[in-house]
Amino acid sequence: MSYEKDFLVSKYEWPYPIRYDKENEVSADVLILGGGIAGCWAAISAAKRGAKVVMVEKSSTIKSGAGGMGCDHWQCTTGNPACKVTAEELTQGIIASHSGWDCGIHHYIECRDSYDTLLELEKMGAKVRDSEDEFKGAEFRDENTKFLFAYDYENKYSIRVWGTTFKPALFSECKRLRVNILDRIMVTSLLTEGGKQGARVVGATGVNVRTGEFYTFKGKATILCMSRPERMWHFSTEYTGLYAFNPNVCVGDGHAMAWNAGAEFTLMEKSSYTSRTRGPFGYPDKGTGNSGGTWYACTMVDAKGKEIPWVDRDGNVLTTVSQRYRPAPGQEFTVQGGGLSGDNPYKFKSPKPIYSRDVFGGRESGMRFDDLIEKGDITLPLYADLPGMSEHERRAIFGLMVGQEGKSWIVYRNLTQAGFDPEKDMLQSYQGMTSRVTNWLTVGFCSGGVVVDWDLKTNLPGLYAAGQQIYGSENHGNAATTGRWAGAKAADYALKAGESMIDRGQVEKEKMRVYAPIKRKEGMEWKELNAGICRVMQEWCGEKKSEELLKIGLTWLKEIREGEATTVYARNPHELMRVLECFSILTVGEMIMHASLARKASSKWLNLYRTDYPEVDPPDWNKLIATRLENGEIKFHELTRNYYLQSPNASTLKENYELHKPR
Questions:
Q1: Alpha-helical regions (H) of 98-151
Q2: Same domain, 528 and 419
Q3: Cα torsion through 594, 598, 604, 607, rounded to 10
Q4: What's the CA gap between 293 and 411, in Å, rounded?
Q5: Does position 281 have pLDDT exceeding 70, yes or no?
Q6: For residue 601, is it within any domain?
Q7: Distance separating alpha carbons of residues 115 and 261, to the nearest angstrom
Q8: Does residue 634 sit within a domain?
Q9: Which pLDDT does position 293 carry in this prediction?
Q10: Where does the pLDDT of residue 587 fall: very low under 50, low under 70, confident under 90, or very high at 90 and above?
Q11: Is the model more confident about 446 or about 206?
Q12: 298/425 same-domain check
């Protein structure tokens, strides 16, 4: 059947040829799914080891992915000459800052390899130093290396960078190494040996989001490099804007296809949180005045010009801006510079303004931000007082970091074009001003992911993972170093592995699933389907959970899968992509609910609150719950949180790294 004739979108013709009937076959030694930061580094690493590499990307690789638009700092460079923290110390600090609920494998790889990876990136043409001496004489500048440090000026493990230069440099290097980059192709499933769930992964399927062509990919080794799921609890096409940090195409396709193939996941229950600033009514990320993350450690004042005091972890008031970037007396180092959450354990807490702390001055006085407002100690609105900071600090925040981090370049451009002058103007913050109707929306993302070993290999033979595909992974340097590591490991495996065999029946079944929506002429549209799934997640997998709520939620998702999802239709390849994304969102929603059911306890650190199990973080639940799909049944088993140190041949982070590092 041909779909090329009379194909209209509204009154306009679809601008690309429609070829739903065409199937393409592509072979590789190493097949990389996702062309973001982790994907590009995996491709470069594998290609340098002599592997034939194919990289598949839903968007356009040159700027795609969660880090495609840039980053403002590069974490964990313990190898740089000025750093005073070891890789072991920093890894333990990061894990401790999440109270142990994190993966030491990828964090230690990052801490050991981050500096070398950054230098390699610099050789590709990326800008990582103050080579033009714009910040000469600044407190945070190292005059020998010309690196600009962020967050902890004493220990110097985090480097400010010009992250908008990174992705184009990686793209050019991939092209130089003759990586076969296939853009605008949505990967829809993993192919397994014999078509069996849990067997060796031998390839994948995909569909071109412009022409509708089908792709069958064959690979001796496959690396999942897709982002963490978003659009789970909220989505409105009319209010997307820039409130979400990751692109809206990051919906968990990799999670869904790996789950269906039988891959093992953990921490999927750590997947939702509430927010004043995100959601359909939120403000652009990094686009309002604040003092966390990209804006750390900006001076804040209230509506009367009263400066908001900063305090260290012990509640001591800090009298200078310089003190905000340094550990407290007796503190070894701070972790990741803080932010607004205040959740880091005491040992690694960063300085923060008092309004961002759960308790006033760090003491258990019960004095909260709302109390300070009601008492009249703080008058709304708040403002980021850039003019009140030194020239170096002001330009480092607004001009370097705001402008290089993620989507913030558009914020920087728009504000600058509108006449905003950081030497004279303050930028309003909306902290504490959002309506109660909209401020506590459950809008989170999923921070769970696949379980990996020290080769970054999953439980499925031939399948590796990197970046946000792994549980607990979250920053730019982590994606780069794990992609680099996984690319080398996958290449070594592929160059020794036998030929992979594609099961044709599995391919035909996937083609039927993928193309079902374009064969319908009417029915539900993808926006309705996405909104319906989000509503189920909001109501039955929200801030408060229980067995009854979660089971009802799973019933709703099952009814959507068997009902509305079978009626959804697409008028063109782009809408087909959106429909297939909704199917991924549906699968990830089920994964989250099953994982939440399996953990019969509440946990502060996982942001999981079960009304039927109110005890918070009981000792007998100090463990990971691994989940996987096997023949239609959900299988669970327990893992110790530091399972990655249980090898009979190595018992420390360093020993495991040395045993497994690519040679």
A1: 104-123
A2: no
A3: 0
A4: 15
A5: no
A6: yes
A7: 35
A8: yes
A9: 87
A10: very high
A11: 206
A12: yes
Q: What does the chain come to in residues?
A: 663
Compute CA 114 distance to the chain's CA centroid, rounded to the nearest angstrom.
18
Please tell me the predicted confidence (pLDDT) of residue 97. Answer: 85
328 and 423 inside one domain: yes
pLDDT of residue 444: 55
Q: Helix, strand or coil for residue 408?
A: helix
Tokens 């990751």 -> residue = 246
- 413 and 297 assigned to the same domain: yes
Query: How do strand 214-224 and strand 23-33 relate by DSSP bridges?
Result: parallel
Q: Which domain holds residue 394?
A: 293-433
Say whether both 523 and 411 belong to one domain.
no
With 70 as the cut, is the pLDDT of residue 359 above it?
A: no
Residues 297 and 427 in one domain: yes
Q: If you search the block for the tokens 């389907």, which residue do you land on?
A: 529
CB 391 within 8 A of CB 383: no
Residues 6+ apart with CB under 8 A from 410: 242, 284
Provide the token pair at 539.
Answer: 């109501």
Confidence at residue 358, expressed as pLDDT on a 0 to 100 scale: 43
Residue 251 lies in a domain: no
Q: Which structure tokens are listed for 158?
A: 């985090």
Range from 49-58, 113-122, 140-149, 396-405 carrying the lowest mean pLDDT: 396-405
Most confidently predicted of 224-233, 280-289, 601-610: 601-610
Cβ burial, residue 457 (10 Å; 0-12/13-18/19+): buried
Whole-number Å distance between alpha carbons of 482 and 229: 19
Residues 536 and 429 in one domain: no
Q: Of the candidates 65, 1, 7, 6, which has an alpha carbon nearest to the alpha carbon of residue 469?
A: 65
In one-letter notation, the amino acid at residue 614 is P
Tell me the average pLDDT across 123-148. Answer: 98
List the one residue out of 221, 660, 302 whose CA is nearest residue 464: 221
pLDDT at 243: 52
